[in-house]
Design a protein that fits this description.
This protein has 410 residues and is of the alpha/beta class. Helices cover 30% and strands 13% of the residues. The protein has 13 helices and 14 strands. It has helices at 2-17, 41-48, 68-73, 123-126, 146-159, 203-212, 224-227, 258-267, 327-334, 341-349, 362-367, 371-377, 382-401, and strands at 52-57, 62-63, 66-67, 78-84, 102-103, 110-113, 131-135, 164-167, 178-181, 196-198, 231-234, 287-290, 298-300, 318-322. Strands 5-6-4-1-7-8-11 form a seven-stranded mixed beta sheet, sandwiched between helices. A three-stranded antiparallel beta sheet has the order 12-14-13, with no helix packed on it. A two-stranded antiparallel ribbon has the order 2-3. α5 links the parallel β7 (131-135) and β8 (164-167). The longest helix has 20 residues, at 382-401. Residues 1-24 and 91-97 have low confidence and may be disordered.
Length: 410
Amino acid sequence: MKYLLSLLFAVLFGQLCYPCFAFSQTPPGSSKPILPGATQIDQYMRMIQDKSVAIFANQTSTVGDQHLVDFLRGKGVNIVKIFAPEHGFRGTADAGERVANLKDPETGITVVSLYGKKNAPSKEDLDDVDIMIFDIQDIGVRFYTYISSLEFYIKAAIENEKPLIILDRPNPNGFYVDGPVLEKKFQSFIGRQPVPVVYGMTIGEYAQMLIGEGWIDSTANTNPVYKKADVKVISCVNYTHKSKYTLPVKPSPNIPDMASIYLYPSTCFFEGTVLSEGRGTDKPFMLFGHPSLPKTMVKFTPVSKEGAKNPKLVNKVCYGWDLSGTPESALKKINGRLQLKWLFQAYKLFPDKKNFFLANNFLHLLAGNDMLMQQIKNGSTETTIRKSWEPGLNQFKKIRKKYLLYPDFE
């Protein structure tokens, strides 16, 4: 019966998330598949046996075709609590939607949301927990909120003196580093640390950087509790920063395929404008436009749907760009760096330039500075803008190198 329930759970997850992604994880030119840290059970099983375990997880937390929660419960691990990030444990909530606590209907385990009323586990949440696990598939972009959740989760583990195991996963955008480095005054949940938009690190590497640089807390370099941090990273196998890793599971509702993963660092800037970024269509972050753009352009209409209940410009006919295609074509479009050309083109064509950017200055949070918006308004060239990024990028790359667990792309 337990096996049948586990199989049903895996099938339900498969129906929800798998069809958009391929399953082959063997890097080109290699016969060895890339294996996430979660698969290396022999490296962490002894640490969680006979312990009360809390897991930070969502639909991406898989071992083969089985969810990590099922996988570990099948081995007799006592999972007492699940913590969930943005989009919820099942990965179906809208971006920014508050997610409530609940009991998981498949397992009966309490699921505590860490996106909504609070961002970190409380002391009470951890009273019945002996050890914590973090296993979430990230896509390597600063404003993708899972690294902010990671930071708060690490902080809670250290301050409550709970051992933490981070099950590392490959970064599908881990083959380059680019974009403006965040300035602290623009810190938010979509960007907390002085890193570029594309930071080229896995979750495990990023965690080591947070701890090693004392970024977890302003007192981290002097507070003795941080000196005793018990955080262990279980590394991936056969991964390097040259790998083009194909995710087996959709990481969030509006990242439907690998092409969207590659384009997201560049096209998410449209969230800071009045243009639709494609939410409410089948091609989020690959389709963008506005009703006032030329009617000779690609036509689309955002509608309310699961994962995008209230998309920008809902039910309005928009005209704009369609960048969708194969992962290979998306890789050619970005050419190993963050692209600004589509933002430039849209601003140039938009008739009401005064109202192109959202009045709440959301672009400042995405960019991590207030310079990018002004540079676009001033008509700065991409070369000039990129030159302004160089000092921050060079400094970050020196820091990044200290914490890499895998061979670099350079």
